[in-house]
Amino acid sequence: MTSTVPALGTLTAEGSALQAVLLDMDGTLVDTEGFWWDVETEVFASLGHTLDDAWRHIVVGGPMTRSAGFLIEATGADIGLDELTVLLNDAFESRIDHTLPLMPGAARLLAELAEHEIPTALVSASHRRIIDRVLPVLGAEYFALSVAGDEVPRTKPHPDPYLAAAAGLGADPVRCAVVEDTVTGVTAAEAAGCQVVAVPSVGPITPAARRTVVPSLDVVDLPFLRGLMTDLR
Fold first, then answer.
1. Whole-model pTM?
2. pLDDT at 98
3. 141-156: buried (b, 16+ CB within 10 Å) or exposed (e) per residue?
């Protein structure tokens, strides 16, 4: 986990119970959920296997160990998890070297949070090697810290990544707003006790208590995020 933790005095904005914003990466800030499926399809094709498109919703948003393990079992491919993980990460890095589009509203939201000195963390199930390739495109200066899927005992859908991010920022998870795009990520954030904004990328997500579903980041700004904390004031 990389960290540049802000001074505690910046944690609570005046008049708001919002202490920090924790953001997922793939499919939330960068338009890469489709990249992962394309890479998985290409790698398994090179191994002589065709992936069923119905499996896409099973592997999306999850940790590499879960998605790769599922695909090995589903296809019967003769390859170990460690070897496959390297192939997938290599192929993904090659893909993002050519293009890495941001999701609509992502750049504006990050700039707004930075302008108002809201502590912000990047929390991803992707491995550190991938996060470190994406951070310069997003703007590493926008994040006080980042948490990678291979840096916590249990990654999403477990709460560990979001609990680690909140602790690193010195924030109460209950007073953190999380922005996610998959059921797996939403499950992790809610298990950590955070307020969640879901921006579905691949599969549908339904509204629930402490969960707000929006069509895109274009409708998410600082007043919106502060408004999620109204009951905590």
1. 0.79
2. 67
3. ebbbbbbbbbbbeebb
